[in-house]
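dude i think i finally got it to work??
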Amino acid sequence: QVQLAESGGGLVQIGGSLRLSCAASGRTLSNYNMGWFRQAPGKEREFVGYMSWSGSRTSIADSVKGRFAISRDNAKNMVYLQMNSLKPEDTAVYYCAADRSRLSTMPQRYDYWGQGTQVTVSS
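look at this
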């Protein structure tokens, strides 16, 4: 019903910035809660942040708090992850996810996922 596609990843220097985008197709995301997750090589998928469809409820993981921010444009079916002050430990594949009924830090609670976009932070 909903297909998500991330873009905007790439190779950046330590301290640099990237903005990841998540585009939806199939249905509007106006009433969907959105999450961002990441997965480093050999690691489990890790919560990054979430935002309710209205933007009234948000959460950012402690590991990226103060550096990352989520935003969304429901009219365009787009969700964004702004990443600043990037560190080598931020290197991972980043995924966006959507769920209609709940907000959660657990990936199991999300119904739809993008294919991921690679972010590599190097010195």
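The CA atoms of residues 72 and 79 lie 4 Å apart.
im so relieved honestly
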